[in-house]
Design a protein that fits this description.
- The protein is built from seven helices and four strands.
- It is an alpha/beta fold.
- The protein has a four-stranded parallel sheet with strand order 2-1-3-4, with helices on one face.
- Strand 1, helix 1 and strand 2 form a beta-alpha-beta unit.
- It is elongated, with a radius of gyration of 23 Å.
- The N and C termini lie far apart (about 60 Å).
């Protein structure tokens, strides 16, 4: 049996030291520095591939694995299918309960409650963010995200040139280093057909 830790913070600026310290007994630790709103995270996928039967996957909090109930259920099922066990450090430990079926039932119940809590917290974060944006708009302080390209941007001009030379929209966008949808959005913005 190997102890495998998984750490996630929402951005590269956030500090992982607290989680690293709590998972110091793990033989291997996987670290993602990105949002938990999606389960497509490189280190999470490596960890799920790496684990074997009998391993113990340890996270400091359930929301480190994911922020919505569906993703959490999928990830936890993958851990279980591999024959590994999930331990969440901030959840009650049920090791004192002798009856294995009762321990499993209580553990699953606790995990379901915490999955719901993690998803609810994610929704509250989004709601607070939207409220903040609305207040900033009313106050005239919110300008939105800065556009990636301007009309004079070299990449955009190159894509426009390629389009005029007979390239398809997809090919012009690819050669200019942008997605087709981004290129289309800028074409419409600058009325280029």
């Amino acid at each position: 049996m190997e102890k495998i830790g998984y750490i996630r913070v929402s951005s590269s600026e956030q500090n992982i030291e607290r989680q690293v310290q709590q998972l110091s007994t793990c033989q291997k630790v996987f670290i993602d520095k990105m949002s938990g709103k999606t389960k497509e995270r490189p280190e999470l996928e490596k960890m799920l591939t790496y684990i074997r039967k009998g391993d113990l996957v340890i996270v400091t909090e359930l929301d480190r694995l994911g922020r919505n109930n569906q993703d959490l259920t999928t990830i936890m099922d993958q851990i279980k299918q591999k024959g590994a066990t999930l331990e969440v450090l901030n959840l009650p430990q049920l090791n004192g309960i002798q009856d294995e079926n009762l321990r499993l039932l209580l553990n699953n119940l606790i995990l379901e409650l915490y999955k719901y809590q993690a998803e609810s917290e994610r929704k509250r974060i989004i709601e607070r963010q939207q409220q903040g944006i609305q207040l900033a708009k009313v106050a005239g302080k919110y300008k939105g995200r800065k556009p990636k390209y301007t009309e004079k941007s070299e990449n955009l001009q190159h894509a426009f040139y390629l389009l005029q030379q007979g390239c398809s929209e997809a090919e012009a966008a690819r050669k200019a280093g942008m997605s087709r949808s981004t290129f289309r959005r800028y074409r419409e913005k600058y009325f280029l057909t």
